[in-house]
Amino acid sequence: MRRLACLLLGMWLGGILLFSVVATQNLASVDEVIEFHPGIGDEANIKKLGGPSSARVFLMHFAAEQNRTNSRHWELIQIIVSIGLLILIVFGTHEGKITMGLTLIAVILVFVQHFLLKPSIMGLGRSLDYLALDADLGGIRHQFRFWNITYIVLEFIKAGICLGLTYLMMKSKSMSRRRAGDVDDQGRRQRRRVSDELD
Questions:
Q1: Separation CA 161–CA 2 (nearest Å)
Q2: pLDDT tens for residues 68-126?
Q3: Terminal-to-terminal C-alpha distance of the chain
């Protein structure tokens, strides 16, 4: 069970890193298409959209919407993985309270991100998609930046918890092996004593 828990931790941590890279690249690819490497037919399509500025706004909205969809799906996956990990650690291993507590914190963070932060980020983000860069109605941009930074900080905390849990479980496994080795050594010594007494 400990191996399965470590596998889930590795998948979870890898997913966090992968999603971070994909989300960043989706937005960065907009400027790359428009300014740096327009392909065959791209220039004509950009003109149809009203020029580079209008095309950039539209493509940024499309990329942001794709990120929002990916993020929503990834959070649902994290909910399943985190709850499965908590069940495994509580009922399938002999890990200590620290490991269980850290896992529970990670589960809570996932729920906070999905049910509290994400709705605000998505709503504010859609409001900003077509808003001019120099416009900020009612501090929407400031609110979006605050909630987005909070979300990112929680992602880093979750990644740190995953690394910490991996370390604790590997350390626990090593200690279990040492205890098993000590028990074997004691058993051998007892058998030798019994054998010597019989002789």
A1: 16
A2: 999 999 999 999 999 999 999 999 888 889 999 999 999 999 999 999 999 999 999 99
A3: 44
Percent of the chain with pLDDT over 70: 78
Kindly indicate the confidence band of residue 56, based on its pLDDT and cuts at 50, 70 and 90: confident
Distance, in Å, from the CA atom of 180 to the CA atom of 174, rounded to the nearest integer, reads 10
CB atoms within 10 A of CB 44: 9
Q: Give the pair of three-digit tokens for residue 158.
A: 């979750």
Q: Is 70 exposed, middle or buried (0-12, 13-18, 19+ CB in 10 A)?
A: middle
Tokens for 52, please give them: 């580079």
DSSP 40: T
Contact predicate 26/63, CB 8 Å: yes
